[in-house]
Task: structure prediction
Amino acid sequence: MADTTTLPNEPSSDTLSAWDRTHQLHPWTAMDAWQENDYHPIESAEGIYLWDAEGKRYIDGPGGMWCVQIGYGRREMAQAIADQVLRLPYTSPWTTTTDPSTMLAKKIADLAPGDLNNVFFTTGGSTAVDTALRTMHFMNNALGRREKKIVIAREKGYHGSTYLAASVTGKERDKSRFDLEKRLVRFLPDINPYVRPEGMSLSDWADAKVADLENMIIEVGAENVGAFIAEPILCSGGVIIPPEGYHKRTLEICRRHDILYISDEVVTAFGRLGHWFASEDVFGITPDIITCAKGLTSGYLPLGACIISDRVMERMTGPEEKVLFSNGYTYSGHPVCCVAALKNIEIMENEGILEHVRQIAPHFQKRLRALDRFGIVGDIRGMGLLACIEGRPDTPGTSLAAERNVGALLDAACDKRGLLVRPLINMAVFSPPLIITKAQIDEMFDILEEALEEVQEQMAATGTPD
Ligand code: PLP
Result:
């Protein structure tokens, strides 16, 4: 290693790609191709569009990573961030507080449902989930219930990448070489209505899925179960929408057994479904804890929050409790990130972005459903500005490998035409910026239709039956 290095002022794009391959380990890197993966270099963005190094324009189908609610290039956001950097870039949340973090805590408490009035700031979604689970540990230790710690989670649920959050994640567990805290968690089977047995009604499926939770509690013993963690919609698992009534019934079960209900709203909060939070406004439940991140700042800066109900706080505190809530991050309540969140919420309020989502979502969902005319499409799912296209598992004439590849094929076909989607094995998901207009929704779905046409032809030409 050299003592100093001088980087060229304007490295060529080839040099930058080489450095990226050699020195940057990206999230979820395919390790068989480590140092061979080429990541798409993006240079700038405006509204719902991104531009790459060659100047090619793309619609940002995934809205960054489910997060760019207000769109790119907001000057007022840049100004608010710059002003706060100059005024006060940082101060320790251990010993001091700041106006932005205090005002944001109050704002979130006002927007959150019921008695969820207590905000712990984190660095993102995973650390919000970690904080929620540690809060459950803390509360049960305070109550002398040292065994009541097991978390019930769900297959296909995604909760993050720190040790605890990854441990309660039910996705792709077998493909990882990372260790997980298996003693802490039990998983309920897939709740996707699409995988229910043929002929089973949706209401019977809901009964079965609710029974899965009850049976698991009986098996483990309610005295050992501390929390149920659930995304209102399982987003990274493929935009899986639980059957009607599921949320309310599972919450009632948790209440009956004194099990904390943690609603992981890292994707669904801040407008994705046309509301600040989906738990109460969309699904009619008031959880004990809500975790959020992503859309809180529209991705302009990293920030998450764990919002804890008064009921839980009361059980963690008391005159004789001299212990510390020893959980926290150097950047908890970071004033610049909190200013970004406040500005983001202000923009959403001033521009009526929640109302816009509620108004535009039916058109988005109508265009989405129309894609089921393609033979290679097995299921179409979505709500608000969330969508997933899942390939059909038994497309005649194609191989299993080709079917598994539908996400990647669709991604390539869309990419060519200036649309980014997020491929997930045999699925493609998208969640565009919330400011998307009707004309832009049409532009996006016109591209998707052409791309599906191409993939269908490709699969028919190259697929071989297994
Ligand atoms: N929870 C949910 C529901 C998520 O979708 C994600 C990220 O996609 C996380 C938690 C983790 O958030 P982060 O990547 O900000 O740590």
Observations:
- The mean pLDDT is 94.
- The two ends are 52 Å apart (CA to CA).
- DSSP finds 15 helices and 15 strands in the chain.
- The CA atoms of residues 100 and 339 lie 6 Å apart.
